[in-house]
Structure formats: structure tokens, C-alpha cells
Specification:
alpha+beta, seven-stranded mixed β-sheet, six-stranded mixed β-sheet, 16 helices, 25% strand
Length: 508
């Protein structure tokens, strides 16, 4: 094995077999995973956190619970991997992006629950702000739709509705941050208040053209600029941590990146026109647009993909609000399956003459339609429709939503997909992946590992530390490819039926 020297502020630390610890702050829980000196994934340990869902359908998390879970997950990962904590060389962080917390700068105590990206509680606030001029300004500066989906309206809601929050914020007593920022704050004992460019670009307070927080946007939402974290490159040094005493020395936090952006990086989507989707609770589709910001005409968003090595890459992006959560609904709410593993076989057994569609607008419809008030529906049911047909419609709805995003991105960029790279738990479903390839009419390339967000952050940290070579990492990946089998005529007919179903839901 090679011996690697890691330079640290305390002096030189020579490590044999150094490890990168990657923390993925996801919607469902905190994940801690380890990568070895070659960038190979060793293991992951999860600690779930509560999903706080109100009678109004608002979605929140207990940020204090998440803070405690960071160290629980890390401890489990180190113990179960049998890794000597002294061999941890660096920490990386990735996260659910638009979810946001507000906390006291001195005590670190959250002022309320964190508001999750899925939550629409700021809908009315956005309606008050809505005007053609405001929409144009927000879109031009941020690349984003004016929507309660993003962090700024959520923070504005907190300042309006939590007693005393606005006054405390104006006195400079409160901080805000997406969950990468909250995690870094915890790892450094409150010493560091930073985020990366990819996460900043999801807040609707960051000008992606100037790469700075924007005073006009902050005024629009009534958010004091003193609350904002410092924005750094994705591969910057974010501070140092001993992981709450779990390590015998402090190590650098050398990467932070949004979860979907981390997937994009680890899947090698580095060239203009490369596109990927990270399937999770919701799904995020990103298409690389190089060093150019493309203002969408098709309901997509522009975003910073990452800033690594001092170079900023941009992407067109769209999010499907409900993906893996559709399968969860089938199991836990509709009781149509006992486990997600049943869905593929049931879908294959469905009557081919049944043409039922499901539009899974459980939390509204995001890109490219942007209708947060929309609700879910099955359409086109007949006497042929039973359990298998409903399950098939639900499963296929995930692929249809992604096809919508791809069609919009292709229209905006003028680029046709050569292939579509995917990752995440739902990619284990062979029926879904074949159907996705059929709808897109191009190969779907599945990563050999579903943990690409955490792996991507770990790659960035390892490269920054001089442990990894990016091209070598990509060559070592094992991928699986699905190729389209559907005729052009059938594809057109299927997509036409889906378009009609969506329009029916939007008219409801």
C-alpha cells in the first residue's frame, strides 16, 4: 500500500491507508460513509430523523435532532468499518439542498424546526411578492422560479411567523443556512458559518452571474444580509473538526456540495450536454451547460453545478417532487404493495390494454409546470384497472416526470441526449429503468453504486487533499446500461397520454 502524507495546520501527519469520511444530510436521515485511499466505497451507516408533518401538510425537521445524529452516524460508521479514527484524513459534506434552518448565532439553538424543501408553507408569501417585474428580476439573477420550493421564501416565512425572529435577525443575532451549513457549524463547534456555491445557488438569494449574495434579493424577502453564510468553492477548506472528540486530531472539512450536484460530479457529467438524474424521495435532473448560464424558456432552472479548481460550471435543472415517495405511498398509504421490491413484478403483470396514468402531485408539481396547488390523481381508469395496473401507473409516473424535465432541458439547450446517467435507490427497479430508457429513446447508464451524492462529495475532498485523481476514479466505476426497446410511435403515444393527464390535473 502507498504511504500518503497529509499536510495539516498542526504540522505534517503521515498516514498509511487514509480514509475520507463523507456525511450526507438527506431528507430521511443522516448518512455517514467511508471511502478508502483509492476512492472505493467501504460502508454507510444511517441514522433516521423524524419527518414532522403538520395537519396543513407542512414538512419540517428537528435541526437539533439532526445535529445529534451527525455524530451518532459517524461513530457507527467508524466502529462498524473497524477503521482507526486516526486514519481519517478529511471530511466531506453533502445535503438536501433547499431545506433551511435558522438559529441563534451565540447559542446555536434553532429558532424553530427546519423547513424541508418539499414544504409549501411559504406559498402565500410568494403570491404577495409575485409580479412580472419581480419574477423577471429573480429569474435573471438566480436562474430560479419565484417559488416556495426555495430557501429564501422559507426563511422569510420564519421571520414573519416565529415570535421575535425578525427583531433578533435585525440585531444580527440569527444565522441561516442550508443543511450543509448547519452540519459544518456543528462539526466546527459553531466556529464556521459557510456554504458552497452549489447550495447558495438554490437559496434564491444568490446571484449566479456575479457569484455573490444579492442585496436586492435580500430586500425582496426581508432577510438581513448578516444572516448569510460565507460562500466558498465546493472544494474549499471549510474548517477543521475532531468530530466531537471522535478523532484524536482535527482534520480538514474539504468539500461541500448539494446532493444532486454531488451525484453529477461522481457520475462524470463534466462535459457540455451531459445529463443525469439522482432519484430519491424526489428526483433531480441536471444537464451540464458548461460555463454559460442558460435562462430557461421551458420552466427549468439554471443553477451552479459546482465550483471546483476555481472554475464554475452551470447546469439546467428540474426537480420532480415525488419519486421514491410514490413507492412509499403505494406501501404505507394505499397498501397496494408490502414492499418496494414487489412493484416491478406487479408492473410487468399489468394488463397491456389498460392505459391508466398517475400524476403524483402530492406536494404540488414542480418543474417544468410550477403549480404548487396541484393535487395527485389517477386518470384513465376502466374496469380493467386493478392493483397491478395502479402500481404500474404509479411506477411509470416517476419516469414520465423525468422525461418532462429532459424534454424541457433539451429544448432550452438545443442539445440531444447521447445517454442519460442515473443514480439512487429507485434505479434498482429494472422495470422503471427500462421504461425510463424507452421514454427518453437513449441509453440509461446506472452507476454501480447508489450513494453517489456522498461519494461525489468524498471525491472532491480527496482530490483537494491530493489523494485522488479524478480520471482514475471515473475509469474505475462499474456501470450498467439499459437501452431503449420501445418504438417511436409507441413512445409518442405514451408521452401524449401523459401530457393529457398532467393538463387534466392542472385544470382541476
Amino acid at each position: 500500500m502507498n504511504e500518503v502524507t497529509i499536510s495539516k495546520t498542526e504540522g505534517g501527519l503521515k498516514m498509511t491507508h487514509p480514509y475520507i469520511l463523507s456525511i450526507d444530510q438527506s431528507t430521511q436521515g443522516t448518512k455517514a460513509m467511508l471511502l478508502d485511499e483509492y476512492g472505493s466505497f467501504l460502508l454507510r451507516r444511517d441514522v433516521p430523523h423524524r419527518q414532522i408533518i403538520s395537519d396543513s401538510g407542512w414538512v419540517g425537521h428537528d435541526a437539533s435532532e439532526i445535529a445529534a445524529n451527525i455524530f451518532r452516524a459517524v461513530r457507527l460508521a467508524l466502529q462498524d468499518a473497524g477503521v482507526d479514527p486516526a486514519q481519517v484524513a478529511a471530511v466531506a459534506v453533502t445535503n438536501q439542498r433547499e431545506s433551511v434552518a435558522v438559529w441563534d448565532r451565540r447559542t446555536g439553538e434553532p429558532v424553530c424546526e427546519s423547513i424541508v424543501w418539499q414544504c409549501n408553507r411559504a406559498t402565500e408569501l410568494c403570491r404577495r411578492l409575485m409580479s412580472p417585474e419581480t419574477e423577471r428580476m429573480v429569474r435573471e439573477k438566480t436562474g430560479l422560479q419565484l417559488s416556495p420550493f426555495f430557501s429564501a421564501p422559507k426563511v422569510a416565512w420564519i421571520l414573519e411567523n416565529v415570535p421575535g425572529a425578525r427583531e433578533r435577525a435585525e440585531r444580527g443575532e440569527l444565522c441561516l443556512g442550508t443543511m450543509d451549513t448547519w452540519t459544518i457549524w456543528q462539526l466546527t463547534g459553531g466556529a464556521v458559518h459557510r456554504t458552497d456555491a452549489s447550495n447558495a445557488s438554490r437559496t434564491q438569494l444568490f446571484n449566479i452571474r456575479t457569484m455573490q449574495w444579492d442585496e436586492e434579493l435580500c430586500r425582496l424577502y426581508g432577510i438581513p444580509m448578516s444572516m448569510l453564510p460565507e460562500v466558498c468553492d465546493s472544494d474549499a477548506l471549510y474548517g477543521e473538526t475532531d468530530l466531537g472528540g471522535l478523532l484524536p486530531h482535527r482534520v480538514p472539512i474539504h468539500a461541500a456540495i448539494g446532493d444532486s450536484h454531488g451525484v453529477m460530479f461522481s457520475h462524470g457529467c463534466t462535459e457540455l450536454g451531459d445529463a443525469m438524474c439522482g432519484y430519491g424521495t424526489g428526483s433531480c435532473m441536471l444537464m451540464n451547460t458548461g460555463e454559460r448560464v442558460i435562462t430557461s424558456r421551458s420552466g427549468m432552472n439554471a443553477t451552479v453545478a459546482w465550483r471546483v479548481g476555481g472554475r464554475t460550471l452551470y447546469a439546467l435543472e428540474g426537480v420532480a417532487n415525488s419519486s421514491g415517495s410514490v413507492v412509499t405511498w403505494l406501501k404505507e398509504n394505499a397498501h397496494l404493495v408490502a414492499s418496494p421490491a414487489e412493484t416491478a413484478a406487479l408492473a410487468r403483470s399489468a394488463n397491456p390494454a389498460d392505459h391508466t396514468y398517475m400524476v403524483p402531485a402530492f406536494t404540488g408539481i414542480g418543474a417544468p409546470y410550477w403549480r404548487e396547488e396541484a393535487t395527485a390523481a389517477f386518470l384513465g381508469m376502466t374496469r380493467l384497472t386493478g392493483q397491478a395496473e395502479l402500481v404500474r401507473a404509479a411506477l411509470e409516473s416517476i419516469a414520465y416526470q423525468i422525461a418532462d424535465l429532459v424534454r424541457a432541458a433539451q429544448s432550452d439547450s438545443g442539445t440531444q441526449l447521447r445517454e442519460f446517467r442515473v443514480a439512487g435507490g429507485p434505479t434498482n427497479n429494472d422495470y422503471l429503468m427500462q421504461f425510463q430508457s424507452d421514454l427518453l429513446g437513449c441509453p440509461v447508464v446506472i452507476a454501480g453504486h447508489e450513494e453517489l451524492s456522498g461519494i461525489g462529495a468524498g471525491y472532491i475532498a480527496g482530490i483537494a487533499m491530493g489523494l485522488y485523481d479524478y480520471e482514475t476514479l471515473l475509469r474505475g466505476q462499474e456501470n450498467h446500461t439499459f437501452r431503449p426497446q420501445m418504438s417511436d410511435e409507441e413512445r409518442a403515444a405514451r408521452l401524449s397520454g401523459w401530457d393529457r393527464a398532467v393538463q387534466a390535473v392542472l385544470r382541476y
